[in-house]
Design brief:
Structural class: alpha/beta
Shape: globular
Number of helices: 9
Strand content: 15-25%
Number of domains: 2
Radius of gyration: 19 Å
Strand order of the largest sheet: 3-2-1-4-5-6-11
Largest sheet: 7 strands, parallel
CATH topology of the largest domain: Rossmann fold
Order of helices and strands: EHEEHEHEHEEHEEEHEEHEHH
């Protein structure tokens, strides 16, 4: 069986979709704690063996010998979370406990890191080294802390899972993100705002040299993110990919203006954008540019192409957001 924590979240549920539809696997254990009243819809189309609350998992794992891999996507993912004690408990300690169980039981372990660990990008976005990174918020720091802890286990020759990988997800968008509210992608917010108001509000360029709406991100379609994770899970049972921390992005930064325009074009309507001031709680904690270095992933044999921004947005808008049933 394959365990997916955060399995009712966006990335976790699409990984389950990939396992169901591309690999014909339904021996999946979904682990989560659903707090949004509509989030259960993320599981409505999935086929899986068990569902567990996140606090049940460690007890359920004890004595089991039938776990093929743990895919750990569960976390507090809000970049605005201010309760650092909650981040420590959920994003660090829970992850450490799962790592240790996998190490003791010789089970592959794959977990979600984040491009938020790169901070303002002044040191680049290269997954070859995570030294000296300075995240801009507590969420990013919690992910960076666990990355550092993992590498310290390896460096000090402490017990490790037989195969492991951490994934620095860049700006993931796509179906099943609807429960994330403010933290949902700009693609989702564009569709809703434009549908209701006829315009999309983007931030003004508050940093020198950045024009309105031209903040840049490496936008990656959630189906591509799930495909990469599944590649590592599959390879673990045959020819394992090298252990390490990997970027998951497209390697090509695009502007929020490009993204919003692609959404409105996908809706077959004339684009219209309005520019607004950035909220105070984001100022000083905002990444103006992200672009993943992707050579490390390519070097381990992952060869499937990533969706272009336009193609990914078109699939998202036309096959999900514009449908009566918008869930994947």
């Amino acid at each position: 069986m394959i365990v997916i924590t955060g399995g009712a979240g966006m990335i976790g549920s699409i990984i389950a979709w990939h396992l169901n539809t591309k690999l014909n696997r339904d021996d999946i254990v979904i682990v989560d704690r659903i707090t949004h009243e509509e989030q259960w819809h993320n599981l409505a189309h999935r086929h899986y063996a068990h569902y567990l609350d996140k606090d049940q998992l460690m007890g359920w794992l004890q004595g089991r010998s039938d776990i093929e891999a743990i895919i750990h996507m569960g976390a507090i993912s809000a970049t605005t979370e201010r309760d650092f004690n909650k981040l420590v408990e959920t994003n660090i300690q829970y992850s450490q406990n799962l790592w240790s169980w996998c190490a003791d039981n010789k089970v592959p372990f794959f977990y979600a890191s984040s491009a938020a660990t790169y901070g303002d990008g002044s040191l680049g976005y290269d997954d070859a080294s995570i030294d000296n990174l300075r995240p801009l918020n507590g969420y990013g720091y919690s992910k960076h802390f666990f990355d550092q802890w993992v590498l310290r286990q390896v460096r000090n020759k402490l017990p490790t899972p037989p195969n492991w990988a951490g994934f620095k997800f860049f700006n993931v968008y796509g179906p099943n993100e609807y429960h994330k509210e403010r933290m949902a992608s700009v693609a989702f917010h564009t569709f809703n705002q434009f549908s209701h108001t006829g315009t999309m509000k983007l931030f003004k360029g508050t940093k020198a040299g950045v024009e309105d709406g031209m903040q840049m991100r490496d936008f990656v379609y959630v189906k591509d993110a799930a495909s990469v994770v599944s590649f590592f899970v599959e390879s673990a049972s045959s020819k394992p990919a090298p252990n390490g921390i990997y970027n998951i992005g497209t390697g090509k930064a695009r502007s929020f203006k490009d993204l919003a325009t692609a959404v409105m074009t996908g809706m077959a309507r004339e684009p219209h954008i309005t520019f607004i001031d950035m909220p105070q709680d984001l100022q000083g904690k905002y990444q103006y540019f992200t672009e993943a270095t992707m050579s490390k992933l390519a070097g381990v044999g992952y060869q499937l192409p990533f969706h272009s921004l336009e193609d990914g947005v078109r699939d998202y808008v036309q096959n999900y957001l514009m449908q009566e049933d918008k869930y994947c």
